[in-house]
Design brief:
With 257 residues, this protein is mainly β. The protein is 14% helix and 48% strand. It contains 3 helices and 15 strands.
Amino acid sequence: MVLDFPENQINKENTVLVKKTKGKSLVGTKRTILYDKLYEGKLKEGWTITSDIIDKTPGGFFSQETMERSIYYNLGVKIDQVSSKTSDRFQFNLSDSSQEWIGFCFQLYQGKSTSYDFFNEVNFSRGNAQRSDFKARFISLTDSLTSPWNLEMHYERETPKGIIQTFLSEGMAIETGQISNGIDTIIISPIFVKGGKLDNGQYADVIKIIGGYEFVLNNKTLGIVDMYNQSFSVMESKDEHRIIIAAAATALLLRAR
């Protein structure tokens, strides 16, 4: 996968590869975080993952929704509106040659769907809406007077045609966010994967797929994270900005692992 981002803007010398293990939902799975240069990190064991499915079928006893459900049920068809949520928490330490930070991260994914059951033999569901909230807080362990940084990422959209059909027609949900310490606010914007390559070497537009994110402060790119190649690149900036970009990139990579 190739990101639709000018290669001449990427700081090759400060491009860092992040290595990790998979299987976050497997009890006892060993998880580590390794960088090929510049940084050292520790990932705390004990990830907590929770998932809940709640029947949110609307309508009172004499409502239109209840009457319609009753009619379908008598025909052997059961229709329910279902809400679900999945959350994940983790934390990690990140350090370079002069400072160390700790990051606390929380991911919440919520979905709404319609569940169909035909004669207790065929059942399927269609997603109607999806929402994602990702938050992280980065705290300096080196200097207690340094203000913490807060990261927030969010997307929300309706999917009346179902999640798959919406993805095929609109692409991925556009997730944006920011990191702020109350003084500086770094904007996080998605970077899409380049379209399919044609015989003439040009790229044609395809479904919008987010391949990474760009970190921008005052219209200047401070860094990028490449989700497919498991790497991030930090441009020339203040020391605190560099390690915060590294921490934010690490959090996004670990979230998606």
